C-alpha cells in the first residue's frame, strides 16, 4: 500500500484518514464513523487470526500484539472477556469512544493536529491532516478498487478490505452514489469475502441508521 501503511499504519487509522473530506476540511460520517472504525479493528483481528467467526459470532483465539489503550487492545479485551457474541454487537459497542481513541493515536503519531477551543461555552474541535496527500492517494486507490479495472484477486489485501468497509458504510469520500454502488454488487461481494460477517454487520447498522434519519 502507500507510505502510511509501510510506516505501520493500521486499517483503523487508514479508515480515519479516508473519512476526512479534504474539500470541506473535516471528518465525514458523523456518528457512523465510530461503527466504521470498530469494524476496521475487528477486520484486523479477524485477518490476523486473533478472532474467528463461529456461526455468525466473534470468538477470541489468541491475543494480538497491541499497544495498551489502542482500539485494537480495547476491542480484544471486550471480546476475550465475553462469550461469543454477534459481530453486530462488537461493531456497535463503544463506537463513540472509538473515534476519540483513534484520533488520539493519530495525533500522537503526528498524522493529524487537533485544535480545541470554546464557542459560547461549547467545546469545538478542529482536526487538520498534517500530510493531506497521503489521504488523497489512499482515497484514489480505494476508489479505483471499488470501481473496478483490476481483478479483486490482484489487489493488496489492505486496499481490498478498506474498499469493502467503505462500501458497507457508504463512506462519502470514496464511494460513488449509492444507486451506482448497487450496480457493482458482484464486485463488492468479492471485495468483502475475507471479512464478510463484519462487512454485513456494518452495512446493516448503517442502513438502519440512515433509514432512521430519513436518508436514502
Number of strands: 7
Distance between the termini: 32 Å
Q: Uncertain regions: pLDDT < 50 for 5+ in a row?
A: 1-8
Helix content: 40-55%
Mean pLDDT: 88
Radius of gyration: 17 Å
Separate helix tally? 11
Percent range for β-strand residues: 5-15%
Succession of helices and strands:
HHEEHEEHEHHEEHHHHH
**Structural class designation:** alpha+beta
Oligomer: single chain
Largest beta-sheet details: 3 strands, antiparallel
Overall body shape: globular
Tell me the strand order in the biggest sheet: 3-4-5
Overview of the molecule:
The structure is a single chain. With 216 residues, the chain is an alpha+beta fold. Helix content is 55%, strand content 14%. The protein contains 11 helices and 7 strands. It has helices at residues 3-6, 11-18, 32-47, 71-80, 87-92, 95-108, 132-147, 157-169, 178-182, 185-192, 196-213; strands at 20-21, 26-27, 51-54, 57-60, 85-86, 112-119, 122-129. A 3-stranded antiparallel beta sheet has the order 3-4-5. Strand 3 (51-54) and strand 4 form a beta hairpin. The chain starts with a helix and ends with a helix.
